Amino acid sequence: MTTHAHPGRRGLLFVMSSPSGAGKTSLSRRLVADHADLDLSISATTRAPRPGEKDGREYHFVDRPTFDAMAQKNEFLEYAEVHENCYGSPREPIMQSLAAGQDVLFDIDWQGAMSIVDNVPDDVVTVYILPPSIADLRRRLYARAQDEAEVIEGRLARTKEEILMWDRYDYVIVNEDFDMAYAELAHIYHAERLKRARNPWLIPFMDGLQAEEV
Known about the structure:
Blueprint: E1 13-17, H1 24-34, E2 38-40, E3 44-45, E4 60-61, H2 64-72, E5 76-82, E6 85-90, H3 91-99, E7 103-107, H4 110-119, E8 124-130, H5 134-144, H6 149-162, E9 171-174, H7 178-193, H8 202-211
Parallel strand pairs: 1-7, 1-8, 2-7, 3-4, 8-9
Antiparallel strand pairs: 3-6, 5-6
Helix pairs in contact: 5-6
């Protein structure tokens, strides 16, 4: 499945958040793979790479002094400190993509999502991914085997706090069945691309229709 940008169309920022382990990353990667006009925003982070992660693919891994310098120079559209690590979305390439009609997907926490909404409210669509239960979330996190038990339990303890932010999002998906959750996510993306406000080319198109002789 692919989508194609119409000349004169403005891009959108498709922002996804969830508690760790709820499936947000798998859903977002599939959405990007299926749509040619959707790019994944690569955040800068101060956290260490997890097994299998590569610099410049999942994240731009930087040290804290480098991150702080970028923040001071206003080089992030949003940035936040989460679980004792910093994350930030580089501003310039994102705004260039919007102007060129290219969509950008964000796989970020709720703090970063709300910062983007505050900065560019007319260009943002927000989606929150929930697990079917906390017990299921615990099972997924341990099965993933990417973090120590102490880290996992710390994240689970914060999950109930994080999910209180669900009502700040435009859409909420419960990821009980991956294929169903993905279908819902893709429907949301397609509908948001068709919104009149994101397609200013419709104005001259309508002028042309009205100018035609009947």
